[in-house]
Amino acid sequence: MGKIAGIDIGGTKIRFGIVNELGEVLAEWTIPTKIPLYPYLEEQILRMKMDFPDLSGIGIGTRGMVDAETGVITFEKELEGWQGTAVKSQLETATGLRVECNNDANCAALAEVQLGAGKGFRRAACLTVGTGLGGGFIFDGRIMNGANGGAGEVGHMILYPNGLLCGCGRKGCSEQYVSGTALRRLIREENVIDPETRDLAMPQHLFRLAVDGVASAISVRERFLSDFAIVISSLQAVLDMECVVIGGGVSDSADDWWDLLLERVEPLKLKPFEMRRAVFGNEAGMLGAAMLIVD
């Protein structure tokens, strides 16, 4: 198949990678995200195509909901003007190459199942715990996209009816309780003070403070992990997956909470399933985008 371009579009930066069909990264670089996005993206891709004339296809992962068949962005409010863009058809016309487009969390999930922690499992759910809570479901090697490109929006499963207001406009969504943003709120509510800075703790330090015995940090950890376990259990009731892979920025501190999460999930399991930590970090979305081209 030759070389494939994988592109991961985020709110502040765009990651490009040139990848072979085995998932080996041959070149990689990032550029800032600029609005209006499409003409800027096309310009950068045409420049890339000049540098790598032997590309066989381009895979794109982007925030927001995507109609994977048409490659149209069906819902995205943060990137102005991106919603409604026919990414696939416009880029195929501009480049003459095959283009596939999907949600960034779905792409990260695809990378983990084809190349990483979920390899060998036919049915896997991958959760990305960062600023928000994202997900992707890979069954028999294919992304479950849903009717409108919205499958895998784990962060918008309602965890607490009539709970905290979410950015989507509904109340009680799970990412208000299981995410980096949720940790910041919980730290404020429990008044978790970092002994070294004498200020409110940063989310990346929260779990280490709990290990060190800070009572308020332990309280936050318990609330967070209990809610996380319920989210995972609910997914099993719907998907009956064989494996859950967990990644994202919050998982960077997993050495301090992973075993505790396993303990909380275990009594909630309907049937046994594996839980694994993601292999890939920030490159997961780019790698998975490239894998969209590998049939």
- What's the β-strand tally? 14
Structural class: alpha/beta
**Portion in helices:** 25-40%
The fourth-level CATH homologous superfamily of the largest domain is ATPase, nucleotide binding domain
By CATH, the architecture of the largest domain is named 2-Layer Sandwich
H-E order: EEEHEEEHEHEEEHEEHHEHEH
Q: What share of the residues does DSSP label as strand, in percent?
A: 15-25%
What does the secondary structure layout of this molecule look like, with pairings?
Elements: E1 3-9, E2 13-19, E3 25-32, H1 37-51, E4 55-62, E5 65-67, E6 72-75, H2 87-95, E7 98-103, H3 104-115, E8 123-129, E9 133-139, E10 142-143, H4 180-190, E11 193-194, E12 199-200, H5 203-211, H6 215-239, E13 243-247, H7 258-265, E14 274-277, H8 284-291
Parallel strand pairs: 1-4, 4-7, 8-13, 13-14
Antiparallel strand pairs: 1-2, 2-3, 5-6, 8-9, 9-10, 11-12
Helix pairs in contact: 1-2, 3-8, 4-6, 5-6, 6-7
Entry keywords:
2 domains, five-stranded mixed beta sheet, 295 residues, alpha/beta, Nucleotidyltransferase, domain 5, 24% strand, ROK_cs, ATPase_NBD, ROK family protein, 33% helix, ROK
